[in-house]
Design a protein that fits this description.
The complex is a heterotrimer of chains A (about 350), B (about 375) and C (about 325). Chain A is α/β, with parallel strands linked by helices and about 350 residues long. Chain A folds into 2 domains: about 50-150 and about 290-310, Response regulator (Rossmann fold, 3-Layer(aba) Sandwich), CATH 3.40.50; about 150-285 and about 320-345, Response regulator (Rossmann fold, 3-Layer(aba) Sandwich). Chain A is built from 11 helices and 12 strands. Chain A has a 6-stranded parallel sheet, with helices on both faces. In chain A, strands 7-6-8-9-10-12 form a 6-stranded mixed sheet, with helices on both faces. In chain A, helix 2 (about 65-75) links the parallel strand 1 and strand 2 (about 80-85). In chain A, helix 2 (about 65-75) packs parallel to helix 10 (about 290-300), helix 3 runs parallel beside helix 4 (about 115-125) and helix 5 (about 150-165) runs parallel beside helix 6 (about 180-195). Chain A is elongated. The termini of chain A are far apart. Mean pLDDT of chain A is about 85; it is low at about 15-35. By secondary structure, chain B is an all-alpha fold. Chain B has helices at about 1-15, 20-40, 45-55, 60-85, 95-110, 115-145, 150-170, 200-220, 220-230, 230-235, 240-270, 280-290, 300-320, 325-340, 340-345, and strands at about 195, 200. Chain B has a two-stranded antiparallel sheet with strand order 1-2. Chain B starts with a helix and ends in a 16-residue tail after the last helix. Chain C has one domain: ABC transporter involved in vitamin B12 uptake, BtuC (Orthogonal Bundle). Chain C contains 15 helices and 2 strands. Chain C has helices at about 1-5, 10-30, 30-60, 65-85, 90-110, 115-135, 160-165, 170-185, 190-200, 200-205, 210-240, 250-260, 265-285, 295, 300-315; strands spanning about 150, 165. Chain C has a two-stranded antiparallel sheet with strand order 1-2. In chain C, helix 2 (about 10-30) packs parallel to helix 13 (about 265-285), helix 8 (about 170-185) crosses helix 9 (about 190-200) and helix 12 (about 250-260) crosses helix 13 (about 265-285). At the B-C interface, helix 7, helix 12 and helix 14 of B face helix 6, helix 12 and helix 15 of C.
Chain lengths: ~350, ~375, ~325
């Protein structure tokens, strides 16, 4: 009994200490705009932005992170408040959105095409809240839901075109995450672009085997990249979250990285998000996730946002330090392709 | 004075007699205290954090529904692991059995038509249970007739199930004109309803749990199970057909996991998508161990896990604490429940020695 | 030497057969064969190391199902150790020491406290997954690269040279570790004592062996190998850390251990087999030689393992006392 009492005493002491040490900091840690919190989102003068990630974390160096950066930036710019919830179970999408709608958030950003259906349902249920669905194509228009979609095949095409011109061995590689729509669009675009630039080129395409960690397996990505390199591929496109990042990091270690061996990143400019890859990273096939999200959040703030689909931009990231390795001639040709894709004069021909 | 003393003694006696209940409760409490220290290191008041979890999971009608929904497959997956452990089999394959069943019941819910609602639900559930049981039976047969260890075969079968299901929902059974890899939605008649905040599946899981407990503790079949689990050689001498027991055990275990998967599909997701149901089978192992292979104890164990998982989002929303803290809490609880230190600390010499729930590799 | 051959007949036949087939392919297509083998061995390395952890534990009577968690913690500590000390070598040491620490935890829980061994392992896995995920901080990079070392002469052998003898430090050591564990387990006093503790602890006790001490020591030291496996993944194979980096390799290693009949050489053969079938699956997907969906191609290693096990290996017997805590009578 005495021991029980000791135990209880220690526990209570610990609780009290814990409670005191933390004082009153019981509000969210994810504050961005300094003075605001979400206690008063319903009021007209406060602007609250909530973000629900797909399975995965907000620091994934990939699309969750970019969307969050966009939402944060927009909220800060208009003097609003932003907060996120990380989804751990696909069955919780609706519940996570509800956390925000219960507090009368003005805008809710839902990230990832798996969440499309849950977003539509939540938007219909909360007509006064604006929803932004990143990577979610809207087949029918819901007035308060805007799908931010990207022609991934165009970014892939441009990257493939560059690779097709740059390759010396006429062998290109792709180390990819799971075989799902956005990844397939990148991959098929890459192949189409590469063949358009250089008919002799051969593209090796390998997807991660189906598994829970298809987008978080750098070990596999690195091994696959190594294999493709030694089979003669001199430019490899790594597309698939942590798996692709593993490939980029491995290629950066290769002999000739940055002179004869190159890698191409995906989604964001990975020069910044995966610094280990800098020795080989010639460019990234980018989706304008940060700008797209930020533009839509700002449009929601000033009321100009419309339901339906909003086409985000895609393109190639800067060559950064490797610009010298890409001849002016190639740079000009690639710029032409990027422009042509944008104005619609060049079609990728990719269908899923 | 003496009266209170003797009363105290009596109280203490009560605690000592019921230490199998006292220890887990104290363990949970201590885990929450330790977790609280971790939370306060992040600059958040732990009481606020815990309030966020529980007010969402228990005192909000949507949250409560979700708690029950999350608890349901955990009870069944936990039971699946428990039943196998009782005969000395370690079924790491509950995950594979659960997801195959989830697809099977989805297909039954989609492609079998013209059935009246109740019958359609039953048929779809049965399809799930049968597929889960058969998938587990492969491991059982390999073990009984080829001596292939169930730990290897179930690990392999998990991966094989993931691959096959991925193919099936990418190609033959994919919803037409859909970029997502998923099946169509099941028919209305195959949907398992909710009664207010209580999903029908939860009631079913509790009933099955009672049934399994009764079977293991009160029937001849259960007696055989326990005999095999305690001593294979004795069981063998007593004329128990070991091969049959192994296959039956795996069938039962897989069927239970399969029921969990089927209820997920018919009661919550209404379709199959590879991203659903991830990790449930592995949570089943945690539950079975928390419950120390006692079928009835899987219910509170699953409720604990379900509660923490259901409250995770509210926790992050209200405090910014990452939902992974839930796993830390569970790990500490599991450690304290199963390690004898806590019981020894509380009851000294009177501590019950905990029996092994698992019997090695049970070859 | 002769003993070694007769003791490991099955494994050596498998290894020999694989070698012969590999060389046949090597003469058909040098580059493809070499790169597939490099992939296969790279895949096998953490499995082999982790399987050694399992073997040492179970041979001395302790089931270690927490290898996955031990590896994950070591990978985490190795990576962030390198980041904060600025040296990959210090990171390696920190990773290995973390493995020892995790081994010591299992030893105390399973041997000293006589806790259920499988539960102790599961606890390690859950704690590791929770802590590494909770404390993971993004945006850190390794201060330097893992050096690639070539062993003179050996690395010049066609095929085998570049696959086994031109590698990072961990992959390079793995073959030697396997041979050493094999030798120690079957040819030394320590091995004999360990095995007797795992097979028949009461007899070992009667013969004056301190069962508890042998088990404590073996499980703790085996943790160092789990540390190697984890540090290999983070520092050598991936060059980064990610949540859930080990991705079930610790469990796969258990399968490898049983596949290899609790024998170091057997586990090596099993891991190579598994690594090679994975490599071949990925090569088949890359070459598109056969027109079947990638999902099925990727099932190859798992299906092959089941088939091989059910046809060839048959019944294997674990150490008799694996999983049972030992309490001295009286």
């Amino acid at each position: 009994m005495k021991r029980m009492r000791t135990l209880a005493g220690i526990s209570i002491l610990a609780l009290v200490l814990a409670a005191c040490s933390s004082g009153t900091t019981d509000t969210a840690a994810e504050t961005t705009a300094a003075a605001l919190d979400d206690s008063n989102c319903a009021a007209a003068e406060s602007f609250c932005v909530g973000l629900v990630t797909d399975i995965g974390k907000v620091d994934d160096k990939s699309f969750n992170q970019s969307a969050w950066e966009g939402a944060q930036a927009a909220a800060a710019e208009v003097g609003g408040f932003a907060k996120y919830i990380e989804t751990t179970d696909t069955k919780d999408y609706a519940a996570n959105m509800k956390q925000f709608t219960d507090k009368s958030y003005d805008v809710i950003v839902t990230v990832g095409f798996l969440m499309a259906e849950a977003s539509v349902a939540a938007a219909k249920e909360n007509p006064n809240t604006k929803f932004i669905g990143v990577d979610q194509f809207q087949a029918e228009e819901v007035a308060n839901l805007t799908g931010l979609i990207f022609p991934e095949d165009q970014a892939g095409y441009a990257a493939g075109y560059l690779a097709g011109l740059l390759t010396k061995t006429n062998k290109l590689g792709q180390v990819l995450g799971l075989e799902i729509a956005p990844v397939q669009k990148f991959a098929k675009g890459f192949e189409a672009g590469a063949t358009a630039a250089n008919a002799a080129v051969k593209v090796t395409t390998v997807y991660h085997p189906p598994a829970d960690n298809g987008f978080g397996d750098p070990v596999w990505g690195a091994a696959e990249a190594k294999k493709q390199l030694s089979q003669g591929a001199d430019i490899i496109f790594g597309a698939g979250g942590g798996t692709g990042n593993g490939a980029l990091i491995e290629i950066a270690k290769a002999e000739g990285a940055g002179t004869s061996i190159f890698c191409i990143g995906v989604d964001t400019d990975q020069w910044g998000t995966v610094p280990e890859a800098q020795p080989c990273l010639v460019t990234s096939a980018m989706k304008g996730l940060v700008e797209g999200t930020s533009d839509l959040v700002k449009a929601a703030f000033d009321g100009s946002i419309k339901g339906g689909n909003f086409n985000g931009t895609t393109g190639l990231a800067d060559y950064h330090d490797l610009a010298a390795a890409v001849s002016a001639d190639i740079q000009a040709k690639v710029a032409e392709i990027v422009a042509g894709l944008k104005d619609g004069s060049i079609m990728t021909g990719v269908t899923l | 004075m003496t009266i209170t003393e003797s009363k105290k003694e009596k109280d203490l006696g009560f605690f000592v007699r019921n230490q199998s209940i006292v220890v887990p409760i104290v363990a949970i409490f201590v885990a929450f205290v330790l977790g609280g220290i971790l939370i306060s290191l992040q600059g958040v008041n732990p009481l606020v954090a815990y309030r966020a979890i529980f007010s969402e999971a228990w005192f909000d009608s949507d949250g409560l529904l979700r708690t029950f929904q999350k608890t349901t497959p955990l009870v069944l997956a936990g039971l699946a692991v428990t039943v196998a452990l009782r005969i000395g089999l370690f079924n790491i394959g509950a995950q594979g059995q659960l997801i195959s069943a989830a697809l099977a019941s989805a297909l039954a819910g989609i492609y079998i038509t013209n059935l009246p609602p109740i019958l359609h639900v039953i048929v779809s559930l049965v399809c799930g249970v049968v597929v889960g049981a058969l998938w587990a039976a492969i491991a059982g047969l390999l073990k009984a007739y080829r001596g292939v260890h169930e730990v290897i075969s179930t690990i392999m079968l998990n991966s094989i199930a993931v691959g096959i299901l991925d193919y099936l929902v990418s190609n033959p059974f994919r919803e037409p004109d859909q970029s997502l890899q998923r099946t169509k939605k099941i028919a209305e008649s195959a949907i398992l309803p909710n009664f207010g905040v209580i999903p029908f599946g939860f009631i079913l899981a509790i009933l099955v749990c009672l049934l399994v407990s009764w079977m293991l503790n009160r029937t001849t079949a259960g007696f055989r199970f326990n005999t095999v689990g305690k001593n294979k050689f004795a069981a063998s001498y007593a004329g128990i057909n070991m091969k049959l027991m192994i296959v039956t055990g795996m069938l039962l275990s897989g069927g239970l996991a399969g029921l969990g998967g089927a209820i997920e599909t018919l009661g919550i997701t209404y379709r199959f998508e590879p991203a659903f149901n991830s990790g449930l089978g592995f949570d089943g192992i945690t539950i079975a161990l928390l419950a120390r292979s006692n079928p009835l104890a899987t219910i509170p164990a699953a409720i604990l896990v379900g509660t923490l998982r259901a409250g995770g989002a509210s926790l992050q929303f209200n405090t910014g604490i990452e939902p992974e803290i839930v796993d830390v809490l569970l790990a500490i609880t599991l450690l304290l429940v199963s390690a004898p230190i806590l019981a020894k600390f509380l009851f000294k010499g009177k501590a019950q020695k905990t029996a092994n729930v698992t019997s090695g590799w049970g070859s | 030497m002769l003993d070694f051959i007769s003791d490991n007949k099955k494994s050596l036949i498998t290894l020999g057969l694989v070698t012969v087939i590999a060389y046949v392919f090597y003469f058909l297509d040098e580059i493809r064969t070499t790169s597939v083998l490099v992939f296969g061995w790279g895949y096998a390395v953490p499995l082999v190391l982790a399987a050694m952890v399992g073997i040492i534990g179970e041979r001395s009577g302790v089931v270690n199902i927490g290898i996955e968690g031990q590896m994950l913690m070591s990978a985490f500590a190795g990576f962030f150790g390198s980041v904060f000390t600025g040296s990959i070598y210090l990171g390696m040491i920190i990773g290995i020491l973390t493995g020892v620490l995790m081994g010591a935890f299992l030893a105390v829980a399973a041997v000293k406290w006589e806790m259920d061994q499988i539960i102790a392992g599961v606890v390690i896995n859950i704690v590791a997954a929770g802590l590494t995920s909770f404390f993971y901080a993004q945006g850190k990079t390794l201060p330097e690269l893992m050096p690639v070392v070539s062993i003179p002469l050996l690395s010049d052998i066609p095929l085998i040279g570049p696959v086994f003898f031109r590698n990072g430090l961990f992959a390079l050591s793995t073959l030697f570790i396997v041979v050493a564990v094999n030798y120690a387990l079957f040819k030394t006093r320590w091995g004999l004592r360990s095995r007797s503790v795992g097979e028949y602890p009461s007899a070992a006790d009667a013969a004056g062996i301190n069962v508890t001490r042998v088990r404590m020591m073996n499980v703790t030291l085996a943790g160092a190998l789990a540390g190697c496996a984890g540090a290999f993944l983070a520092l050598e194979a991936a060059g980064t850390f990610a949540r859930g980096l080990t991705a079930g390799r610790g469990f796969l290693a258990l399968a490898i251990m049983i596949f290899g009949a609790w024998n170091p050489m057997g586990a090596l053969a099993a891991a190579l087999f598994f690594g090679l079938s994975t490599a071949i699956a990925s090569q088949l997907q890359a070459d598109e030689v056969i027109n079947i969906p990638q999902q099925f191609v990727n099932l190859l290693p798992f299906v092959m393992t089941l088939i091989v096990l059910s046809i060839a290996v048959g019944r294997v017997r674990p150490p008799a006392a694996a999983g049972q805590p030992y309490t001295k009578e009286g």
